[in-house]
Design a protein that fits this description.
about 260 residues, Rossmann fold, 2 domains, about 15% strand
Length: about 260
């Protein structure tokens, strides 16, 4: 049964975004799903994901293939959600990509794409939903960043830069939103066992000549005190909490959920 509120979640047809979307649908939110598709077949799959979750939890859902590198498509997605679903109460800026290389070998097009999708898109989506949230005197903006929003690692110059940028952006929106009932916070996960990460494990085993357990503990989770992956379900639960009305005094905060990585 719906709760009368609407959430827009970017990058929500797989991984972390999908987990958050399902958690919010379970909590009764109508959902605008988003994900980049390359052809009609992928679009059909994405639309089915949205439809199935809507049916499962008895909420309304939409799907938008808006490209996060194109501000005009972002604005059109927000307008569609507001027109069809009535409003946007919660925005979760989750869409993101990664690329790893030393600075002197880092492709400039990869830098531009990461900054656009990970950081610039959050500006465009937040700006687009702001007017409606301000008029209703209520809004929740949740930025999914990373432990790399608080820490740095080698060979991830663009990713770390984008996530640090979102940390500052979160604080600015918290200050600007305070008079209008709009909060903005960031969730900073450590390693999450998404399908994308799962696929990396066999390659890492070959590269390091390690067992799966060794790769997970000594390579992937090396910087985490707790040698376990962050659960997508836990991220979803945290997002639902931050979206609720009881968090009206929590704003401008970057919340690590990283197994102690940021405690070091």
């Amino acid at each position: 049964m719906g709760n009368g509120k609407v959430a827009l979640i970017t990058g929500s047809t797989s991984g972390i975004g999908l987990g958050i979307a399902e958690a919010m649908a379970k909590a009764g939110y109508d959902i605008m799903f988003n994900g980049l598709v390359r052809d009609d077949a992928e679009k059909e799959i994405a639309q089915k994901i949205a439809t199935d979750i809507g049916t499962k939890y008895g909420v309304k859902t939409l799907f938008s293939p808006a490209n996060m590198m194109k501000p005009e498509e972002i604005r059109a997605m927000v307008l569609e959600a507001e027109t069809t679903l009535g409003r946007i109460d919660v925005l979760v800026n989750n869409a993101g990509i990664q690329y790893v290389a030393p600075i002197d070998e880092f492709p400039e097009d990869k830098w531009d794409a990461i900054i656009d999708i990970n950081m610039n898109s959050a500006f465009h989506t937040s700006k687009a939903v702001w007017k409606g949230m301000k008029a209703r005197n209520f809004g929740r903006i949740i930025n999914i960043t990373s432990a790399h929003a608080l820490q740095a690692s080698e060979f991830k110059s663009a990713y770390v830069t984008s996530k640090h940028g979102i940390t500052g952006f979160t604080k600015v929106l918290a200050l600007e939103g305070a008079p209008f009932g709009i909060t903005c916070n960031a969730i900073c996960p450590g390693y999450v066992l998404t399908p994308l990460v799962q696929k990396q494990i066999p390659d890492q085993m070959k590269t390091h000549n390690m067992t799966e357990k060794e790769v997970i503990e000594k390579v992937m989770l090396y910087k985490q005190a707790i040698k376990e992956f962050v659960k997508v379900e836990d991220l979803g639960a945290l997002a639902v909490f931050l979206a609720s009305e009881v968090t009206s005094m929590i704003t401008g905060v970057s919340l690590p959920i990283d197994g102690g990585w940021s405690a070091q």
